[in-house]
Every structure is written in structure tokens, then in C-alpha cells.
Amino acid sequence: MNFVLINLRSDAYNRITKDRACNISSLFLIRNGKLHLTQLTRSHDFVWGLPYNLMQFGYITQAIAERVGVPVGGVNWLSNSFHVYDKHWEDL
Fold it and tell me: Which residues, other chains included, contact 71 with Cβ-Cβ below 8 Å and sequence gap of 6+?
């Protein structure tokens, strides 16, 4: 089994910013012969964040499933915050 180690410095964890990465972790598991994803997210902006994340992690899950030779299963998403910024209300 291969593991990927992430250097926290690469995410500038000590930098003060209002645009911190919201995706915290991805857990891929094969259950009943299918690849399932559980995605943990700090926060979701309904207009900018969520649509991109759904596509991004859908493609990632599909690519991994194809690589390991199993079909895609379900996706579970855990998010601590789900919001719309004032400036985006008209976009809705």
C-alpha cells in the first residue's frame, strides 16, 4: 500500500489569509466492490466552492476507481459551514 505524506508548510499553514483551503481530508474506501469517498470540508460557499468541489472530487473519485479497477460508489460530504456571500445573492 502506498501512502502520501503532506508537508504542512506547502499549504502555508502559518500565513494569515481570508482564503484558507476548505477541503480538509478525503477518505477513499472500497466497500462491496465499489470505491466510496467521504470528503471532510471546513466550509462551503454555495456559489463558488460547492459546484467546483463536486466536479473536482467526482473526477478524482472516478480516476482512482478506474486506476484500481472498481466502479464508483457513493460520496458522503461533511461540511462544517454552508453559506452564500452577500455579493453572490444575485448570481443565485
Answer: 33, 34, 35, 65
Tens of pLDDT, residue by residue over 24-59, are 889 999 999 999 999 998 888 888 888 888 999 999
Task: Answer yes or no: 46 catalytic.
Answer: no
**Model confidence, pTM:** 0.73
The phi-psi region of residue 55 (left if phi > 0; otherwise alpha if psi is between -120 and 50; otherwise beta) is alpha
Catalytic residue among 6, 21, 22, 78: 22
- Which pairs count as long-range contacts for 19-27, CB under 8 Å and 24+ apart, including other chains? 22/49, 22/53, 23/53, 26/57, 26/60
Residue 68's closest CA among 35, 31, 32?
35
Q: Please give the backbone phi and psi of residue 82, each rounded to the nearest 5 degrees, phi first.
A: -135, 115
In this structure, the number of other CB atoms found within 10 A of the CB of residue 44 comes to 21
